[in-house]
Amino acid sequence: xxxxxxxxxxxxxxxxxxxxxxxxxxxxxxxxxxxxxxxxxxxxxxxxxxxxxxxxxxxxxxxxxxxxxxxxxxxxxxxxxxxxxxxxxxxxxxxxxxxxxxxxxxxxxxxxxxxxxxxxxxxxxxxxxxxxxxxxxxxxxxxxxxxxxxxxxxxxxxxxxxxxxxxxxxxxxxxxxxxxxxxxxxxxxxxxxxxxxxxxxxxxxxxxxxxxxxxxxxx
Length: 219
Known about the structure:
The chain is mostly helical.
């Protein structure tokens, strides 16, 4: 029994020595792990909350767009940007708001919304759409160099026909009909027949004396 007590005391002494040497480090490590775990869950909770809030604010913006209430659109967009600016809903909302603001003649506010999309680089397609719309606003303002700069940026394959169409608009306004025909024809060929915009591009080609169906299959 005495031997057992002695062995137990020796083990306790070793444990005390170990804890004396390493206890603080272990506590700090455990604390850091717990904080990281709590932080990760907090981040997940925050993201989920942001997404839900963003969805509600986007719905408010969509209602304002449907009602063609430009002032309400601007307010709803400002709320969405301020309260859920880091969400995908905010980027979609920016595109919606920009369209309504541009149609109402509020070009600067539309540009600001589109530039917001460009600041978030985690969605190439949305950024490409924003650049194409900015190029359209530059064309309306006769800012040819700015439009050219925006149209030189690469776009996803699915959006290439819309880029070519915008490029045709630019060349047409610059007084370059041959280059405009080439760009429009490329856009027309890139759009499937069931896409309504193809008819608009075809009308632009017709205005330049080109029947794209006659050039089908030609390089």
